[in-house]
Fold this sequence. Notes:
With 459 residues, the chain is an alpha+beta fold. The chain has helices spanning 8-13, 17-28, 47-62, 125-140, 162-170, 233-241, 275-287, 290-299, 347-358, 379-392, 437-458; strands at 66-70, 74-79, 86-92, 110-112, 115-117, 148-154, 178-181, 184-185, 189-192, 194-203, 209-214, 224-230, 246-251, 254-260, 312-313, 317-318, 320-328, 332-341, 362-369, 372-373, 400-402, 414-416, 419-420, 434-436.
Amino acid sequence: MSKKQESIYQSLGKNYYKVMVENLKKFCAIDSTYDASTADEKNPFGKGVSKALKFIEELAKKDGFTVTNYDNKIVEILEGDKKEKNITILAHADVVPPGNGWKHNPFEVLEKKNVLYGRGVSDDKGPLLASYYALKMLKDNHLLGDYQVRLLVGGNEESGSACMEHYFHTLKKYQPTLGFSPDADYPLIYGEKAIINYEVKKAFKLPHIYSFKGGTAFNCVIEEFEMVTDDNESLLLYLEENKIKHSFNKKGNKLFITIYGKSAHGSAPQDGINAGMIGISTLAYIYEYPELIQLVKMYSDVYGRGVDAYNKSEDMGENSLNVGLISYDGKDFSMTVNFRHVNGVKSKDIIKRIKKANKPFKVDVLSAHELLYYPQDSVLVSTLLKVYQEETNDYKSKPLAIGGGTYAKDADNVVAFGMQFPGVDLLFHSPDEYLPIKDLYISLGIYAHAIVELGKKIS
């Protein structure tokens, strides 16, 4: 981005830089991964998520906002009372599990050469705080108009968005007039693939195989896959000859093997190496069990061809398929798949094809999020693009259609807007997730400008 004259939003934002970074470090020190072991009626997503929501709740109350914590699922931060004219920002306090391969503790933010490293710095606690301080700056400087600004901080974006479901459908809160979610890429996202999460199940017995498991979340490529089999030299030889990264040990007549892959976001499985599918393929080759052979045929292709669910569109590219969780305990098999499809096809038709292709395996649909698409000349898209261009002087980068799903799908009149700049990979969902501090600073100004400009459209 070339140099340009500093905007009023960038200039005023400097007063908030220090406190924003300090609070980001505190915020990211909270392990807000979904935790079923501590989940209960009071902490629906686990105690860590509740603690993160409490952090932002107390911060906003201290700063003078009207704040409500709805059942430790979502925190609502309000400024202004014009419900019928509102700018709504959707961000999330939960994070994906850190996984392996970090160079430092992922929940202790490391600052090095003006870059922050830690789980959640870019997905989504950094963007959340950039939006928060943009709103605070506008409030402090009396730059807000005759409309309401509502920042919704959810606790379950990474595990199904039950937070927004609770807010908009159970509590029946009003929908945004216009809004954005700071949880993706700049310039902005005008289209998102539909997302279908489903479970594949079947009971069967695999002689010589005691168990196998892999994965931490349905929307992450499996990084490690563990399996327990009878001692088998052919299996070890196969792994060596095919240069499959692994480790093993023997206990009695049992062989314990861990296969290593490469994590990636579930929206781009082609960027990772799925240790789970490598493991299934290995076991299928060695033991030739028909169930495993069928799984390999169905799920080796990350674009859905194996389950008769391949589609391609000019705007959105190809469908994608990520095997995120696999387990087998000696009698019951289960696999969770994160499938995303492009425009031009209906989810119900895709589901029918997938169920048919998987027989005799049973397929249970866990959740389905419809496609998101806003014309590029719409008020929402054109306004946010203009704001981005004026704040960055980047007139070359174009709006995007992506495979990733964001909060924008969970509310009306919302698109994803930043905070990852073009040509940058902040390693969402991967080890050593990072955020350049200058990107945080610039985004504070961008989001403040966006709130004002969207407000003008509805005032």
